[in-house]
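Hi R.,

Here's the input for the iron/sulfur cluster complex you asked about:
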Amino acid sequence: MAFGSTTGMNESRKLYVKSFGCQMNVYDSRRMADTLAPEGFVETAEAGDADLVILNTCHIREKAAEKVYSELGRLRRMKEAAAAQGRRMLVAVAGCVAQAEGQEIIRRAPSVDLVFGPQNYHRLPELVARAERGGQAVDTEFALEDKFDHLAPPSRAAIRARGASAFVTVQEGCDKFCTFCVVPYTRGAEVSRPVEKVVAEVTHLATAGVREITLIGQNVNAYHGEGSDGRIWSLRRLLDRIAQIDGVERLRYTTSHPRDMDNDLITAHRDLPQLMPQLHLPVQSGADRILRAMNRRHSRADYLDIVRRLRDARPDLALTSDFIVGFPGETERDFADTLALVEEVGFSGAFSFKYSPRPGTPGAEMDDQISEQEKSERLQRLQWTIDRNQAAFNHSCRGRTFDVLFEKPGRHEGQLVGRSPYLQPVQVQAPASLIGEIAAVTITEVASNSLFGVLAHQPRAASRAMQVPASEPGLLRAGA
Ligand code: 5AD
Ligand code: SF4
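And here is the predicted structure with iron/sulfur cluster in place:
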C-alpha cells in the first residue's frame, strides 16, 4: 500500500520519534532518524502528521514502562484519524520495553505495526518495508552483526540542527547485575565499540561544528574497545585520543560505575583540560548492608575514597549521583546513612527514585519489600536534602567566571541560554551569533533552576569561519 502523501518525485515521508528514559535512547533515536533519512523520511514535530511514529521506550522502572501503553492509546486514535483521511500511519515500539516484552506489546496494543529492540534498529528500513506490505514485524533477537556497521551517518544538516553538543555511544550493556536492574537483560552483555569507529564518528561530528562530546554507555567506564594497535584500550586511553581531535573543546562521559573508576581514569580529570569538571557517579545507597544486597560490589567507604581521589585530581569537580530509596530490607537507619552520605559528599545534583521491583530481577523476589507509603516519605526527605545541596552548589557559583557553551535563544529578547561546565543552564544577554560557541561568562544571579550571567569579554567577530554559511548563525564560532 502507498505510504504518505503523493506529491510527485520528491515525495518525502514524515517521521516522528519520541524518546523516553536515558541518553542512550536519545542517541539511538537520532541514529534511527539518520538511518531512515536515505529512505526519504524527514522528521516532523507533530505525531499526528507522521507516516511513521516510533516510541523509543524505557523499562528501568514500572512507571516508565507503563507510559508506553498510555502513549499507544493516544496513537491508536491518531492512527484512526489518519486512516479516515485515507492516510496510513505506522506505529513502532522500540527500545527496552520492546526488548523485554516483544510480541506481548502487539497482543496488548494490536494497532502497533513494528516492535524492535535496541540491538536491531539498523534493520529499520527492512522492517518498515515489511510493515508497509501489510504484516506486523517483531525483531528482538540480539543481532549477531554490529548494528553500528549498518547505520547511516548523520547528515551535516542533521548535526547542525541538533546543536553543538552531541552524544556518542562507545559501550553498551552491562555485566554487573545489580539486583534491582533490568539493564543486563534488556541491553545484554557489555560490548565496547572499536576505538577507530568512535574516533571516526567524533571526527565527523567535530568537522560539522560539534564542540562538546559526551561518550555514553550503560557502564561507560568499563569501556574496553579494540584499538588500531590490536590492543584493548581503556576509557582513559580513549579519552586521551578523542581529546586530540580538532574541534573537540569539551569532553564528558556517562554513566560510570564506582567499581571501574580506576586511577588512570581519575587522573584524566587532572590531565585533560577538555574533560569537564562534572561527573555523574551513581551510588544508589549510603548503607553498606543495602549496597551489598544490591550487589554493587563496593562499600560506602570505597565510594568516599573515590570521591576524595577525584577531588584531589580536580579540586573544582562537581559530582552528581543516582539514589534508590526503599530497596527491600532498607531500614530507617540505612536510609539515614544515605542522607548522611549526601551531606558528606555535597552533590551538585542527583536523581532519586523509589525502588520499583522489576520482573526477572533478584530484587523483585526478595523478602521485606518496603511499603509504597514508606518509599514516598523517604523519597521526599532525600529530595529535600539533595535540593538543599544543589542550591548551595548553585549559590557557590555566584561571582565565578566560567566558559558557557551557548545553545539557543533564551526566554527573553536578546538572551541566549547555554550550559556551564557543570551543565547548569545559564541565561546571558548575548548576540545570536554566539550560538554554538563557547564564551566566558561571569555569574551574577542564581535562581532555582538556572544561573544568570554577563559576558566576561565583548565577543570578537566570528573569525574562524566554519563550514556553515554566515546566514546560518547556528554554529559560527569566535576565534579562540
Ligand atoms: N527501581 C528504581 N530505580 C531504579 N534504577 C534502576 N533500576 C531501578 C529500579 N528497579 C535507577 C538507578 C539507576 C538509574 C538509571 O535508575 O538509580 O542508576
Ligand atoms: Fe544496572 Fe547496575 Fe548495570 Fe548500572 S551497573 S546498568 S545499575 S546492573
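One thing worth noting: The first helix runs from residue 23 to 36.

Cheers,
M.
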